Amino acid sequence: MRVAVLASGGKDSTYASWWAQMQGWSLEALITVKIEGDDSMMFQLQNTEVTGYQAESIGTKLIRVISSGVENDEIDELENAIRNSVGNEIDALVVGALRSDYQKTRIERMCEKLGIISFCPMWHHDPELHMNSLINHGFDVRIISVSSEGLDESWLGRKITGESLAELIQLSRKYRFNLDGEGGEFETITLDAPHFKKSIHCEGEISWDGVRGTWNITKIHLST
After folding, report:
1. Which of 15, 34, 103, 189 has the most crowded CB, counting CB atoms within 10 A?
2. Domains in the chain, start-ordered, CATH in brackets?
């Protein structure tokens, strides 16, 4: 099976790329979408440039897709990019969707038009089990944006560890947000994973408006 992974650089798409390799499949490419606008219903906005370093560390190629972020256009822009770049080179697209029917149904329709299979290996995984699995398998996940009550600027740039996850669990119960961030409460990047040959090192700076904020990469490189 020849597959590409729709990669944002975050925890779920990185987990999906590892899962694909664990099946013994050939990972032909990471496909990342760069949003030119201020919002997207489908794709992560911040720090997607990390996917280039992930692709190099994994040993696969990166396909960059520029998207307007306009709701009715962005899936068509992705479809055209896949058709023109790897349309004849892959049998399936693997995505890290957890519970977003909006994302999953649009990806499935796109894949049907392209004549390839859509895989969502973590669909409806239990949030706490999923987050613990990331830690237990050695994923280095950092929070790079927060936009939920209960999550302040101290979380920006923070690594998800056993200790920080325990704190996050308590906050998610108190403030009733999704523990895995599936509702957009936070976004992540992944700096190391079991299938990376080299870890990623980066520095960043915090932008905080008193309610929500981001951790923006200023320097990034692979370990030597």
Report:
1. 189
2. 2-119 (3.40.50.620), 127-222 (3.90.1490.10)
